[in-house]
Amino acid sequence: MQSLRHPVFLTRIDPHRNMARFYALSVEPTLFGDYAVQRRWGRLGTSGRSRSDLFPDLVSAHARKAQLVRSKCKRGYVEG
């Protein structure tokens, strides 16, 4: 697994189910001193959907990012 200080790009591909999904995560500072966990997900080859969750400090933002990575890896996503 990559360091949590870098963006993470996960994929889940299953040709038998016609499944080709991605899930991208990153932690970014906001203009107001908070930190945002940026999430993008969808079918490979599309722009997908996105969501930002705000956190008051970097530690809690990285903790949430790590939790999401663990959750997605349990569901079959892999890096790359």
Description of the molecule:
This protein has one helix at residues 58-74; strands spanning 8-14, 19-29, 35-43, 49-55, 78-79. It has a single domain (8-79), classed as q64v53_bacfr protein fold, CATH 2.20.140. With 80 residues, the chain is α+β, with helices and mostly antiparallel strands. The protein is elongated and about 45 Å long. It has a 5-stranded antiparallel beta sheet with strand order 4-3-2-1-5, with helices on one face.
Could you say what the CATH architecture is?
Single Sheet
Question: From the helix content, strand content and strand pairing, which structural class follows?
Answer: alpha+beta
**Rough shape?**
elongated
* CATH-level-4 superfamily name: WGR domain
Q: Please report the total strand number as a whole number.
A: 5
Mean pLDDT: 93
CATH fold label: q64v53_bacfr protein fold
Quote the beta fraction.
Answer: over 45%
Helicity level, as a percent range?
Answer: 10-25%
In the residues, how many domains can be counted?
Answer: 1
Largest sheet: 5 strands, antiparallel
Cα radius of gyration in angstroms? 13 Å
Lateral strand order in the biggest sheet: 4-3-2-1-5
N-to-C span: 10 Å
